[in-house]
Amino acid sequence: MTNPLKLQHIRAQADMLGVKYHHRAGIVKIQQLIDDHLIAQNNSSIPEPDSEASIRSEPKIPTVKGYDKLVVPMGAAEYKKEAQREAKALVSALLRVRITCMDPHKKNWPGELISVGSAKLGTFKRYVPFDTEEPWHIPKIIYDVLTERMCSVPVKKKDARGHKTTAYKQIKAYSITLEEPMTRLEIDELARQQALAGGLE
């Protein structure tokens, strides 16, 4: 990917995340701002490296805590508000993924702007790049939508008379690999590398 195109993509991601950057900032600087933004969002939920929770296991999708465990009694209005708040927290949780687009109509696309949401949850817009060297963070609501999307691909076959014809079959539009969340040590190392890269820019 050429630098101008990569700069355009990194700016698009920053805009979708609401990250502010100087109009003359380069790729490294904007990426550092994005990483800092993601670290700030996830830092409170990342286990300490010496805790049992930091041991690598299969990636897990975030789940909403059971409402029966809420200690403070709530009325119907408060209960509904709390349920909506936790539902929004669930769908906005960031997941690390690698994505390959399987749709032949988008085979030359470097990425895609995805917009999903509802009246209760709000709208989530993210630029999703394809076939990146490093994992990419997307909200769970976008992850769920992408895993369900299908596309049609042509299949060559012969009809009853032996004539060649084209049929279409449905396949998953995206191949998505869910990566492990970053540990605190990995985040600290990433922050250190970004700081060094920023100083050399």
Describe the protein's architecture and organization:
The chain is α+β, with helices and mostly antiparallel strands and 201 residues long. It has a domain at 94-181. The protein has 5 helices and 7 strands; from the N terminus they run αααββββαβββα. The protein has helices at 3-17, 27-42, 76-91, 140-148, 184-200, and strands at residues 94-101, 111-118, 122-129, 136-139, 150-158, 164-172, 174-178. A 3-stranded antiparallel beta sheet has the order 4-1-7. It has a two-stranded antiparallel ribbon with strand order 2-3. The radius of gyration is 21 Å and the shape is globular.
How do the helices and strands line up, and which of them pair or pack?
Elements: H1 3-17, H2 27-42, H3 76-91, E1 94-101, E2 111-118, E3 122-129, E4 136-139, H4 140-148, E5 150-158, E6 164-172, E7 174-178, H5 184-200
Antiparallel strand pairs: 1-4, 1-7, 2-3, 5-6
Helix pairs in contact: 1-2, 2-5
